[in-house]
Amino acid sequence: MKFKIVSDSSSNVFTFSGVAYETVPLKIITAAKEYVDNAELDVSAMVRDLRTVKGRTGTSCPNIYEWKAAMSEADVVFAITMTSNLSGTYAAAMQAKAELLAEHPEKKICVLDSLSTGPEMQLVIEKLAELISAGKDFEEIECEIKEYMTHTHLIFCLESMANLARNGRVNPLVAKVAGVLGVRIVGVASPGGTLELLHKPRGGEKALATVVDVMKSYGYRGGAVRLAHCNNEAAAAKLAVKIRALYPDAEIKIIPTTALCSFYAEEGGLMVGYSDV
Ligand code: X90
User: Fold this and answer.
1) 218: burial class by Cβ within 10 Å (0-12, 13-18, 19+)?
2) CB 50: neighbour CB atoms within 10 A?
3) Which of 9, 53, 169, 233 is most buried, with most CB under 10 Å away?
4) Which residues line ligand 1 (CB under 6 A)?
5) Distance (Å, rounded) from C-alpha 24 to C-alpha 267?
6) 12 phi and psi angles, rounded to 5 deg
7) How far is the CA of 260 from the centre of ligand 1 (A)?
8) pLDDT interval class at 78 (50, 70, 90)
């Protein structure tokens, strides 16, 4: 039995050792160019280009065929997507599953809607790998991962929400305050998989303290944390120090955002995935 994990590229994870793993890319589209969110892309160069790009910019989700190709050569597939409330990626993955099962009814495919993105998906991928490596079967893994996903959360801290607003993912009036006079927006992935804006701290230090407060009030107790940052390693490292000051045993990993999350979280943006167990 060949097991495989497939994620869309909004997880920021392109490789994973120990289990079969593949990412299907979202794309960033400008008038001049299409950037494919894969390991070959130079994300810093894209972020640089985006600073000066004129005209409309947008994104597109992986299509059914990309999902199907990534799912096809395994007997058991666990696929994870970004929230179905902000992207068509989940619908495409579900359609790919339906088509593959019609052709190969013996396959087992579970598509998980993360109702989130980025580092919260990363935690789910890591847990899936752990469950597969432990030799569990499809049904056990499906049940345990769904339970685990009730314990994972996502907080974001953004300096600009211009791309989110331009592409209709948040209210433009609310988005407007981000970046003005050093104001950050701190919010969470809501239970329904949308952006819920909570605070408007002014200045970087205040923003990091707010993130830690929100983590605590949403149930963080010292478990795993994954910090994804767009060109802001320094803030991610500071945040890790603040978390460890309260929870010395916190298991924290810092990774850069790849193209999709870099486009929407924008420069300076932080995304924090954590488990409350
Ligand atoms: O299908 C597509 O074109 C992709 C659309 C993606 C839109 C939103 C991406 C947000 C990425 C922002 C902070 C965290 C948001 C939490 C969401 C529940 C990063």
Assistant:
1) middle
2) 18
3) 9
4) 26, 59-61, 83, 86-89, 116-117, 154, 156, 169, 189, 193-195, 261, 264-265, 271
5) 23
6) 65, 10
7) 8
8) very high
Phi-psi region of 59 (alpha: psi -120 to 50; beta: other; left: phi over 0): beta
The mean pLDDT of the chain is 97
pLDDT tens by residue, 1-54? 999 999 999 999 999 999 999 999 999 999 999 999 999 999 999 999 999 998
> Vertex 215, ends 59 and 85: CA angle to 5°?
30
Residue with tokens 């992986």: 62
Query: What's at 111, amino acid-wise?
Result: V
Q: Which residue has the tokens 């850069």?
A: 256
Q: How far does residue 85's CA lie from ligand 1's centre (Å)?
A: 9
Q: Is pTM beyond 0.90 here?
A: yes
Answer whether residue 158 shows pLDDT above 90: yes
Q: Which amino acid is at 250?
A: A
Tokens of 270: 């932080």
> Is pLDDT above 90 for 249?
yes
